[in-house]
Amino acid sequence: QWYQRRVAITAGVAQQRKLQLQQFVQATKVLLLTYEKVYESKEPTDLAMKRMLGPQLQYFVNCMLTKFNFKNRVSVRALKFYADSLLLLGELVKAEEALETAQNIAFQCFNPTDLDLFDILRDRANVLARLGQKEETAGVLEQCLTIIEQLDGEDMLTKESELLNELAQVHGNIGNLSYSNQLLERSLSIQESLFGSQALEICDTLSRLAMLRNKMGEPTQAHSQLQRVMRIQERHDVPRHEFSGTLCNMAAVNAALGEHEKSKVLYQSVLATQEKQYGQWYPEIATTLSNLAMVRMALGEYEEAKDCLERTHKIRSRIYGKNHPLVASTLTNLASVIYTMGDMKKSMQLNEDALEIQKACYPDAHPLVAVTLKNMAMIENSTGNLDRAKTLYERVLMMEELIYGELHPSVASTLNNLADTVLEQGETAKAAVLFQRALETNEIIFGKDHPDIARNLNNLGRAFKEMGDYDGAKTKLNKSLEMKEKRYGEDHINLVPTLMNLGDLFNLTKQPHRAKDVLARGLKICEKKIGMKHPDSAKMLRLLGNSFYLMGDLATSEKLLNKSLDILEGVYEGDHPYILATRADLGACSRPVGTRVF
């Protein structure tokens, strides 16, 4: 009797466990079906639904893996959706861990060419990219490509071209621009063979190729390629709101060409279309506002740029919560605008707030963490804390070399920043070495005709000027100007920094008439391209005022310096270094000519 009772109890427990399992499976299927309905949506209400379902998915995933030891297609799907809900909260590390678990189950349980395995790998690659783990991202995408290449059919060729595009994006971010171009050309060839040269399906790849050309310093070719995209979309009567991506790309290329007003008009057009189509709180509206802010900043419209970014912050905080990586990126951009407006204290606070969010979301060495630290270094530099600025730049440099290796545009950019600080510390020879290393890095990446090379030559010329090597400075600056004129024409805004340095060099070498001609040209470009309320216009006026001082025309000098001061005081607050320097020059107008006052 004891044995029979024991058997009956065991059978009862087994039956109860089986019933629990059936109920659990049924509840899981209902939850997954509910989530699937909103999985690809970006509507604010659906995003809120996904966030609400996240804790339930977490509970079901834990039960599957611990209580019931489920390792099948259902558990993989649950992990996929759980990772998606974590991404909405900015929990990138946890999302990647969930997808890695799903990937391991899929490798154990699925056929090596199963498309569900492919989907999980692709999702994980996306998260790894956002975590800044670019080499790992490329490796996972290569696994995806291996799966697709073993499968036949037009759909598989389409997926192959999509993967090639994603892999090209990763290699472009790593700095392998030539290989990225090869991958995109291969993708385009597949798509044109499937759909023809005038099909909508090729537009995404054409746009990617255009933006890669822009990154490679070929904005004219990029512009031409985007015009082809627009002709295709117009031919197929693409709705205006679906046209927005192309218009935003065209706006970015116009900005690279120095046509910031055209860029602004395009972004404003996209913004109006998106607001009409989606309302005020759609995620893409925040992206457009952020891009518009950067263009307004380039035009010197700092208050308008600040307004755009504050609105971006409200949208992203409402959709994603206040601790999301996109919110951190918005804070970093806002800090840059406020830095340019001269409020160093507030800018530093915003960067610190962004860094706190990023540290919770990303690994220690992440590209966006490096950007925030670089911004903080710029503030330290501008407020005279040169040792702290140098320490931060050196930290960023180590981080970027760890992420990208030594041959990457971001590394070259940080070398330039570090050189600027070292130059201000009076270590002109060391600054020249750093500027030279940045130049050589960019020459290896881009070749010798890229716009970044012209900028590097301008920086080297400035270092030579400060070292007192005026002949060397003149050679570098003239070469920089020649390259910029060849690429952009005679009146492009990118010529202004080199014209400023040349003008300053001529003032230093007591050639004020030559300085006047160069600086007047630069001022005319500023007036045409960015207006007379921009800090660069004020800097040009100040240098020109110094030229007239050296020529003995103190009245004109005073007039120009006052104009410069009026602009600067309208942009910056308090005792900004530019304001103090201009006031000092004004004070010198009452003294005899003969000493350098700038």
Write up this protein:
There is one protein chain. The chain is mainly α and 598 residues long. Helices cover 80% and strands 0% of the residues. The protein is built from 27 helices and no strands. It has helices at residues 2-38, 44-67, 73-88, 92-109, 115-130, 134-149, 154-174, 177-195, 203-215, 219-235, 244-256, 260-278, 283-298, 302-320, 325-340, 344-361, 367-382, 386-404, 409-424, 428-446, 451-467, 470-488, 496-508, 512-529, 535-550, 554-571, 577-588. Helix 1 (2-38) crosses helix 3 and helix 21 (451-467) packs antiparallel against helix 22 (470-488).
Gist of the model:
The chain is mostly helical and 598 residues long. 80% of the residues lie in helices and 0% in strands.
Helices and strands, with pairings:
Blueprint: H1 2-38, H2 44-67, H3 73-88, H4 92-109, H5 115-130, H6 134-149, H7 154-174, H8 177-195, H9 203-215, H10 219-235, H11 244-256, H12 260-278, H13 283-298, H14 302-320, H15 325-340, H16 344-361, H17 367-382, H18 386-404, H19 409-424, H20 428-446, H21 451-467, H22 470-488, H23 496-508, H24 512-529, H25 535-550, H26 554-571, H27 577-588
